[in-house]
Write the structure tokens for this entry.
Amino acid sequence: MRDELLDLTGALKDHILSEKESRSGISRLYLKGNLAMPSAIPVDTMPNNETIHVSSLTLEDIREELGDCTRCKLHGGRLNIVFGEGNTRADLVFVGEAPGRDEDRQGRPFVGRAGQLLTDIIKAMGLTRDEVYICNILKCRPPENRNPESDEIAACEPFLVKQLQSIQPRVICALGKFAAQTLLKTDTAISVLRGRFHSYHGIQLMPTYHPAYLLRNPGAKKQVWEDVQIIMKEIQKEP
Ligand code: URA
């Protein structure tokens, strides 16, 4: 009961924030290639205090800055850094949680069983993996695929933010509870967050279930399909 009340309160807060923002028209000002990103975005309409800036850094620059990263304890157990891959100017970016065993071995995001399902979802949207960008909150595999820890997120998230600033997608799809809650800085359940856009610093963010969850709960594919249809409509709109 308490959890349900917390979820409802969180959802109401998120809804009020996104309503405020859509009335201010901010997200429509933040278009791909528009270097006149408004500098005075009201911070109180943002899920957190940092506004996203348009960056002239390329993904290669950011990869170079990341280097052979030792910023958190995960570096000790990894085989490869999984930076992300896809179209450097993608309209749509998928953000997952963290690399698993297959991703760690190959140095590529979403290449295991969950990755195959994500690839199928992307195809069903009429897109290919090369047309979108795919990355994770964390770039190194947590031991035994445990949940990311706050110090690891703190070390890694700035690089994800830079990637998003560089790509300037129109839509971000947050895959699973972890990605959605981390990006939106909320504890609201994914079942409550999914199904509608939220603002990630002025970018439309759609939370949906993680493909690994769908492997265990195929019944939830219907809701993911609803969510990706909303995304498709949005990216088909004239910018
Ligand atoms: N799960 C994730 O969240 N990310 C991957 O890259 C693979 C599986």
Observations:
- The radius of gyration is 17 Å.
